[in-house]
Amino acid sequence: MKRISIFVLIALSISMTSCAQKSDQSVVAPVAEVATSPETQTPAFKESVSPAELKAMMASNKELVVIDVRTPQEIAGGKIENALEFNITDPAFTEKIKALDKEKEYVVYCKVGGRSAKAKTIMQSAGIKKVSNLVGGYDNYKSAGQ
What we know:
This protein is an alpha/beta fold. About 50% of the residues lie in helices and about 10% in strands.
């Protein structure tokens, strides 16, 4: 009898937990939908942007900050106009990132995208929420004719 009672209690506990989780999920979704109306929606933020998207962003958002994380030697071969230069191999890189305005929107790039992905992670760790990585880096941007 005790074995059956314990089994029933465990089954009820699992059932109640499962129902509570489903209930929470169904309550959260409608609230999120109500909170954003078409009048207040902003364009979706993108984790990665193509060269064409970056070009359009730079034309439409004068507050956008583009950051080149390549070395000075690489930058000497060309860079995106008005991009800030924050060499990711510089020991002061993280301090420079921490000094940035956390409310602005950023796009980071390197040669092909690897170092800028790392820079993006560092920026997010520093509290910057709107940071995108340029897909394919400067090489892709240049070959796309941008």
